[in-house]
Amino acid sequence: EVQLVESGGGLVQPGGSLRLSCTASGFTFSSYRMSWYRQVPGKERELVAGISNTGGSTNYADSVKGRFTISRDNGRNTLTMQMNRLESEDTAVYYCNVLLGWKNHWGQGTQVTVSS
Questions:
Q1: Residue 18 phi/psi, 5° resolution?
Q2: DSSP string spanning 63-95?
């Protein structure tokens, strides 16, 4: 069974930092591209960042470029996203994602709230 478990969310002031983690199991982690998405109530889930299976290629939404960094540890089946200079617009539930064949798999999500 595929499992993705996110952690690291919380409340932070504007300009602060958080580090999200996603622990994966049930599939060969090192073989698949991984992504972080986020969702605000009433809006569609949006892609924040993605990373190739080796970690050699990454992509980011324009809104987070230069502030967020996605990385992975294939030896520990862990996906990470360092989020710096957080803004109120970054407030959302953040989800870890992997596409296996035709099916998207999601974690339960972790809430990030940026507020003073």
A1: -145, 155
A2: TTTTTEEEEEETTTTEEEEEE-S--GGG-EEEE
Q: Provide mean pLDDT across the span 37-62.
A: 97
For 1-10, what is the mean pLDDT? Answer: 97
Query: Which residues on neighbouring strands pair with residue 97, listed in sequence order?
Result: 35, 106
Strands of the chain (E only): list them.
Answer: 3-7, 10-12, 18-25, 34-39, 46-51, 58-60, 68-73, 78-83, 92-100, 103-106, 110-114
At residue 7, the pLDDT reads 97
List the beta bridge partners of residue 98: 34, 105
The letter for the amino acid at 33 is: R
